[in-house]
Design brief:
Structural class: alpha+beta
CATH architecture of the largest domain: Sandwich
Helix content: 10-25%
Radius of gyration: 20 Å
Order of helices and strands: HEEEEEEEEEHHEEEHEEE
Number of domains: 2
Number of strands: 15
Number of helices: 4
Distance between the termini: 59 Å
Low-confidence stretches: 1-5, 190-216
Length: 216
């Protein structure tokens, strides 16, 4: 059977372009992809040039927290799945990457994840050129991160997800379910429906903290 014939049919909705205010069509297409399960691709394009794309994960699992000690070169190859609702923590560097409305979902490994964090650090250092203290701290963190990528230093990578769609795949990784209280303190980066209060909550943060003041 042709795989395309098994794919669910998409549908279109109409909205208003946020730039030119003309009518704009949004196309919705569901699919099933490895690791993430059921997803919805959302795409739109307006004649004025405005474009929007997003991937919504439709499945929801138990809230999860995974922790991995990166101590050896082979640890850099451990698979990482980060959904749009995943929070990344590297406590040794005071780094926290929280989801927001422009968060990406991706499948990579620990090395790839650390390289993404390194890109953020390098950008933060450029922004801190007028603040010698922050610039010095940024360079110190960058040196520690590069040492970890070269297996010269150890780091801890923590992945938390209130919707359970993020994880670290490794026998070394320690994973556990979060309590409802722990899960509720995490950001999701999306619109969610609180079944208990029957109110919509909108989380639009994109909180990246590459230069934590509590780093020692």
């Amino acid at each position: 059977m042709n795989p395309e014939s098994e794919r669910k049919e998409g549908f279109d909705t109409q909205t208003t372009c946020p730039l030119c205010h003309d009518d704009m069509i949004i196309h919705w297409q569901s699919d099933n992809i490895p690791f993430f399960g059921e997803v919805m691709y959302v795409t739109s394009r307006c004649g004025c040039g405005f474009r929007f794309t997003d991937t919504m994960i439709l499945t929801q699992k138990d809230p999860i927290r995974c922790e991995l000690k990166v101590e050896k070169e082979e640890d850099l190859n451990c698979r990482v799945i980060r959904s749009t609702s995943g929070t990344i923590r590297i406590p040794e560097l005071g780094i926290v990457v929280e989801p927001g409305n422009v968060s990406d979902s991706y499948v990579t490994n620990i090395e790839g994840l650390l390289c993404r964090v390194r890109d953020v650090l390098e950008t933060a250092i450029k922004w801190s050129e007028d603040d010698s203290e922050k610039e010095s701290l940024g360079k110190k963190l960058l040196e520690r991160l590069n040492d970890a990528l070269s297996s010269k230093a150890n780091l801890t990578v923590i992945m938390e997800d209130p919707l359970g769609n993020s994880t670290i795949i490794s026998e070394k990784a320690s994973c556990k379910n979060l309590t409802p209280e722990e899960a509720s303190s995490l950001k999701t980066g999306m619109i969610i429906l609180d079944a208990d209060s029957s109110e919509f909550k909108v989380d639009t943060s994109e909180n990246v903290q590459p230069l934590g003041n509590d780093y020692k």
